[in-house]
Model the fold of this input.
Amino acid sequence: MGIANKVLKEVTLFQEYASTIQHGDEEAFAEIHLAEIHCINAIGKLSQANVTKIAEMMRMTRGAISKINKKLLQRGLIASYQLPDNQKEIYYKLTESGKQLYDTHAKCHLKATKKKMAVIRTYSSQEQQILLRFFNDLNALSLKSNKKEKSI
Done:
């Protein structure tokens, strides 16, 4: 097996594993799906979060975000509101329970980032440049594929 095939195998394995990575605090995330916690994360980060802004940030459809938000509203993790001067648009904010999940998720990401950075620092600057180019190319390929799927 050539090096290119080995790299592809490892990237594929990483992608498969990344979609099932535990957050490190299984009890806090036991009843919530990955897309839901990422939606909570988006709402926590965005100013006046609405379906469109969340969908753009998460690279998902507005319909998918609406479904997720409906579940989050039912669970009491987010609340909806409207601005006095715009009764048409619905915005979302985190409840206290949602804020707790948001904070826990942020801590888990920080912990994971530190671990990944420790691995990255084992590579020389030149190797890091190659890694950066590789992942930029993969991300560009993914974005290109996603745009094609949406236009169909």
User: Anything to note?
Assistant: The CA atoms of residues 72 and 78 lie 6 Å apart. The chain has a mean pLDDT of 87.
